[in-house]
Design brief:
Residues 229-427 form the Histidine kinase domain. Its EC number is 2.7.13.3. It catalyses: ATP + protein L-histidine = ADP + protein N-phospho-L-histidine. By secondary structure, the protein is of the alpha+beta class. The protein has 4 domains: 2-140, Beta-Lactamase (2-Layer Sandwich), CATH 3.30.450; 144-229, no CATH class; 234-281; 287-452, Heat Shock Protein 90 (2-Layer Sandwich). 52% of the residues lie in helices and 15% in strands. The chain has helices at residues 2-51, 58-68, 94-99, 135-138, 142-186, 200-233, 235-246, 252-277, 289-306, 326-343, 392-402, and strands at 75-79, 85-87, 105-109, 112-122, 125-134, 287-288, 311-314, 321-322, 350-356, 362-368, 406-411, 417-422, 451-452. The strands form 3 sheets. Strands 7, 9, 10, 11, 12 and 13 form a 6-stranded mixed beta sheet that branches. It has a 5-stranded antiparallel beta sheet with strand order 2-1-5-4-3. A two-stranded antiparallel sheet has the order 6-8. α6 (200-233) runs antiparallel to α8 (252-277), α7 (235-246) packs antiparallel against α8 and α10 (326-343) runs antiparallel to α11.
Amino acid sequence: MRRRLMTTVFAATTLIVVALVLPLALLLRGQAENRAMAEATLQAQALAPVVGTYDDSPDGVRLAVQRLGGSPDRIVTVFLPGGRTLGTDAPVDDAVRLARRGEAFEAEYDSGKAVLVPVQGIRSGTAVIRVDVPDQALHSGVKSAWLVLALVSVILLAVGMLLADRLGRSLVASVANVAETADRLARGDLDARAAPQGPPEVRRVGEELGKLAGRVSKLITDEREEVADLSHRLRTPITALRLDVEALPAGEDKDRIAGDVDAVETMVNDVIATARRGARDRAVDGADLAAAARERLEFWRPLAEDQGRTITDRIGSDAVMVPISPDNLDVALDALIGNVFQHTDEHVGFGMAVSTNRSGHPVLTVWDDGAGFSGPGVLDRGVSYDRSSGLGLDIVKRTAVDCGGHVIIGKSTSGGARIDVVLGGDMPGRGAGTKAEAGGGSGGDFDSGARPR
């Protein structure tokens, strides 16, 4: 913007200067010529009465001509009747012959201009006074005036460019301020506001951007509070469930159910706290993907054994740190494993692996030996083909995207479903959640560039 403004101002100022200076330069040249010719005319008219007395005083006329015609800027020649001349010697030409008819005028020559004045009263005929003005005398002082005009033009251009630069700086600064505020808002800083500066239009944009940010912040706050309120309503049925558990006879089943109720209550409290805290206030220190995967796999192992499912564990013992909070990572792992139990029959095996791809980013792979995915768009929020909420894989995808990763779905070697969750790195060219038809393994092959740890 700044460069365009300076270019526009330079072009406009140049046109204005040329439009003013060029006619003024021509006018100065014409005035110089007119001034020189006027002085030559006065000189010729002053000499005419003296030349008229030539019959009475030829020596006086000759002396007067020598004194008046001694300047190199005014060359005086008197053409007497009979072909004689006084002053600077010059031949008789057509202009002199025309002047002898009694007409005074100006004539142009190759070396400049001349004023011709006829003088009558001499007994032998009409004399002609010619005052020649060379080009140098005609344009005396014109070059100096043109240099002054050129200097003034340069100063005007410089002042115009300086003003354009100042204006461009102010415009660019105000627009940059609004752009920086928009970037901060895009990064999640909803408290960012643009400083009121610049022209009215830019200030208006900044004000509207602030209003938009305030509106978005209020909508997010309202939604967060609504989620917290909905979660809070779950405490009543949880309390009733706890009372029912307390009524059970003492034993292993009572302790197990009581532990599950405690886990549900803890999860509800976490949802309430997380919803009211907001994403910007959540500190993310990172988590060990391998340790979390082993822990969640062990959590689900008793249910798998009850349903006769075989579990393939290819997680490894090395720590794999990912930039995700432990709670969010556990939720994503539970969503992946829970999908296997919800969408496959009993006795269908599944597995989990932790690896890295060719770029060195951690990859979590979950596969099963079921029938595979029921249809397209399973990564889209709310899409389900089995009467479920359709939120499980969307939670996994958002967890991956939040740390710069993506999710790839495909088929395992047994024909079941396979999900590769890349945690970190750039989004692939085909987009997050793109279905990959290339087969993976039931943990054996990592064809997407991943390798077991």
